[in-house]
Amino acid sequence: MKIAFYCPLKSPNHPVPSGDRLMARLLMAALERAGHQVTIASELRAFMPEASASAVAALSALAEAETARLSALWQDTGPPDAWFCYHPYYKAPDLIGPSLARDFGLGYVTAEASYSARRNAGLWAEMQANVLKSVKLASVNICLTRRDLEGLAVVAVDARLALLPPFIDPSLLLVKQPEPEPGRLITVAMMRSGDKMQSYVMLADALSRLTHLSWRLSIVGDGARADEVRALFAGFDQGRIVWHGQKTAGEIADLLSKSALYVWPGCGEAYGLAYLEAQAAGLPVVAQAIAGVPEVVIDGRTGLLTPPDDVDAYAKAIERMLTQNEERHALADAARIFAGEERSLDRAAGQLGAILDRHLKRAE
Q1: Fewer Cβ close by (within 10 Å): the C or N end of the chain?
Q2: What's phi and psi for 245, nearest 5 deg?
């Protein structure tokens, strides 16, 4: 099929790295590997950080213009077979695809759509209504976590839902043989406000309770809160914390291959592709059993998950991995198989292709 791909939150071509951008690129790659022809339909960013009448009006006008542009283009060149929208939610609804799908008789697909009833207030309620309409219209809504699937099933009883677990392209990670340095911890995360900052705060607190052990932490990432993140770790002895800044995928693969344990609390993580990358590199993970993290880290099999907001339990789990080398090795081996095979791009392409074959053929 010819698939028009659209990300209202952030285009796959956006210059700033993020989990959203990476997942969009992975979905496009999986669609292509499944045999489809994929084109980014629009670069219009529909993200509204704050709700205001003027912002809604401006975005609606831009969406109308973009809809008209695509409609005219497709009348000349022919329409695609399907519209695929990645990650519509209340701050970034799809204001283009639904009307085009109806006008041109396209299959309409969402991936990682989410709905939060607590956001139904003021202008956000209007944006939520747009998301709900998209979900109900869709030939299929592809959910990356059971959490999202169950949430959509409650508010859109008749919606067509399918589960596609989060995945990565593990090729860069699998070609490197793990050579972990004892006690070498690593985390890879942007330095920004909100959940990311909360995780850095928790990580620093947990490690401050483990200064009696031999370890060194590599921190990969950068962002607007970099100075504050550095301040969190300023009290540790020199050499304990190694700051790497932002790195390429290849450089991150090198650093992961030399590390022994991936540590990131994961406050509010939708799921966290970095966890899968670490596991594919042969690192067990210590994280919290929170939000979507259990979708990508299997407690007791590929890592250890601790109760939410329990810093002491989190610190003890890291200590366990630093002192129980035989268990760490077993988890490392299982993590590499899990992320490298069960959650690979090849596996996901087959699953995604089967979902589209089943639901879009039914729509036709």
Answers
A1: C
A2: 70, -165
Residue 212: other Cβ atoms inside 10 A? 6
Helix (H, G, I), strand (E, B), or coil: what is residue 358?
A: helix
Query: Cβ of 231: how many Cβ atoms within 10 Å?
Result: 11
Q: Which superfamily does 2-167+344-363 belong to?
A: Glycogen Phosphorylase B; (3.40.50.2000)
Rounded Cα distance between 153 and 150, Å, is 5
What H or E segment, with its residue span, contains residue 81?
A: none
Check if the beta carbon of residue 105 is closer than 8 Å to that of residue 82: no
Which run of H or E residues covers position 275? helix 273-280
How far from the centroid of its chain's Cα atoms is residue 89's Cα? Answer: 14
Q: How does pLDDT run across 115-160, given as a tens digit for each residue? A: 888 888 888 888 899 999 999 999 999 999 999 999 999 999 999 9
DSSP string for residues in 173-207? HHTSPP-PPTTEEEEE----TTHHHHHHHHHHHHH
8 A C-beta contact, residue 138 and residue 109: yes
**CA 214 from centre of chain:** 32
- Does the pTM surpass 0.85? The reply is yes
The residue assigned the tokens 């976590």 is 145
Q: Which one-letter amino acid corresponds to residue 354?
A: A
Enclosing H/E stretch for 163? strand 161-163
Count CB-CB contacts under 10 A for residue 363: 16
Q: Where does the pLDDT of residue 363 fall: very low under 50, low under 70, confident under 90, or very high at 90 and above?
A: very low
Q: What three-state secondary structure class fits 308?
A: coil
Which of 348, 336, 331 minimizes the C-alpha distance to 277?
336
Architecture of domain 171-342: 3-Layer(aba) Sandwich (3.40)
d(CA 173, CA 339): 10
